[in-house]
Design brief:
The protein is α/β, with parallel strands linked by helices. It is built from eight helices and 17 strands. The chain has helices at 27-40, 60-72, 109-120, 143-154, 214-229, 280-296, 303-315, 329-342, and strands at 16-19, 44-47, 76-78, 87-90, 97-102, 127-133, 161-169, 176-182, 192-193, 199-209, 237-243, 249-250, 253-262, 267-273, 319-324, 347-353, 356-362. The strands form four sheets. It has a five-stranded mixed β-sheet with strand order 5-6-8-7-12, with helices on one face. The chain has a four-stranded mixed β-sheet with strand order 1-2-4-3, covered by helices on one side. Strands 9-15-17-16 form a four-stranded mixed β-sheet, with helices on one face. A hairpin with a 6-residue loop joins β7 (161-169) and β8 (176-182). α1 (27-40) packs parallel to α2, α1 runs parallel beside α3 (109-120) and α5 runs parallel beside α6. The longest helix is centred in the C-terminal third of the chain and has 17 residues, at 280-296. It is globular, with a radius of gyration of 20 Å.
Length: 369
């Protein structure tokens, strides 16, 4: 990808085919394609959905995301059901209101936020999302990440929303509930994140819920602190351990979330989820080591925020520049799908700069009509 522009012809109102098996080949393609289809009112057909997975086709959380976006804009879905590998989506007009989405499983509510939030920024009024499922799930950032990292970073682009965690839900039952409140914006501001600055503090929390004892959280916090202090001896590291109240969590769960704040206002985070077969020591160590990996290359964003910014950079009015570490497959996928949907209206360039990569984007300056 280094130094390479992706270019496609301008998309017409005819239905555009999106190959759901390319690059990452999973839910990322669905989320980016559906969001942009909704915002730009461009009908799409997504084929070969998750073709390379052990269980190809739509899973419950993917279907819930599609149905949520269709609901946001009075859109129409065809052939949308569990296991479907080909789906047609014809978007309507975004509207204000209250919208409910329930995965019915431990599927991540955070991935529902990813697909819905860009759309809601351009609704015709305030919106409320009631999302049900897993708040701390595998293969997705925890809801804490959206509060502690994503929210302050996208605020730099003019995005403001509230996130109220009503109840946490864990694998395998889910049962979590989150309320998101949004207000529309006229247009997104471009973002420039090129100077990470120095790490000035590291905060976080380790939690347990259900029948798990608080000592599990204490172990995770202590081990993570010890690992982080090997590299950052002279900065504050404050990781709190706590037990979720019974009325605020459904089921048993544990995990740890860490965030490094820098002198230039960057927030870089990582997390690790507890599992029955993992020792608490291993969970705390994994989260700390992953955070250190994200910090050592000098980028301004972590690997999770990297791909989530792509669609927002494309929508912004002007040039965005973001310094990051290695380009992830999720980011390559997000760029590919965005260029496919928007054609030569948007331009991305990725180039190497020492131990980092810089992602540049000339956004379209989208405004709601």
């Amino acid at each position: 990808m280094s130094g390479l522009f992706y270019r496609y012809s301008i998309i017409t109102k005819t239905m555009l085919e999106v190959d759901g098996s390319i690059k990452e080949g999973g839910g990322q393609i669905l989320r980016v394609a559906t969001s942009l289809s909704c915002i730009f009112q461009k009908p799409i057909q997504i084929t070969k959905i998750r073709a390379g997975r052990s269980k190809p086709g739509l899973r419950p959380q993917h279907l819930t995301g599609l149905e949520l976006v269709a609901n946001l804009c009075h859109g129409q879905l065809q052939n949308a059901h569990i296991g479907s590998t080909d789906v047609n989506f014809t978007p309507g007009h975004l509207k204000q209101g209250t919208f409910v989405a329930d995965t019915g499983t431990a599927g991540s509510v955070c991935l529902l936020i990813q697909v819905a939030l860009p759309c809601l920024l351009f609704a015709d009024g305030p919106c409320k999302l009631l999302l049900k499922g897993g708040t701390n799930a595998e293969f997705a950032p925890p809801i804490d990440y959206f509060d502690m990292v994503f929210q302050p970073m996208v605020a730099k682009m003019g995005i403001h929303y509230s996130c109220d965690i009503k109840r946490r839900g864990y694998f395998p039952k889910g049962g979590g509930e989150v309320q998101i409140m949004t207000t529309p914006i006229k247009e997104l501001q471009p973002i420039t994140l090129l100077d990470r600055g120095e790490v000035i503090n590291i905060t976080g929390h380790a939690f347990v819920a259900g029948v798990l004892p608080i000592r599990v959280a204490n172990i995770m916090a202590d081990i993570a602190t010890r690992v982080l202090k090997t590299q950052y001896k002279n900065i504050p590291v404050n990781i709190k351990a706590y037990q979720e109240p019974r009325n605020k969590a459904f089921g048993n769960g544990s995990g740890i979330v860490l965030v490094a704040e820098t002198s230039t206002g960057c927030c870089i985070g990582n997390s690790s989820l507890g599992k029955r077969e993992l020792r608490a020591e291993d969970v705390g160590q994994k989260a700390a080591e992953q955070l250190l990996d994200d910090l050592k290359h000098g980028g301004c964003v972590d690997e999770h925020l990297q791909d989530q910014l792509i669609i927002l950079m494309a929508l912004a009015a002007g040039k965005s520049s973001v310094r990051t570490g290695p380009i992830t497959l999720h980011t390559e996928t997000a760029i590919h799908v965005t260029q496919l949907l928007l054609g030569n209206q948007v331009k991305f360039q990725v180039h190497k700069d020492g131990d980092t990569n810089v992602i540049e984007c000339e956004g379209v300056g989208f405004t709601a009509t």
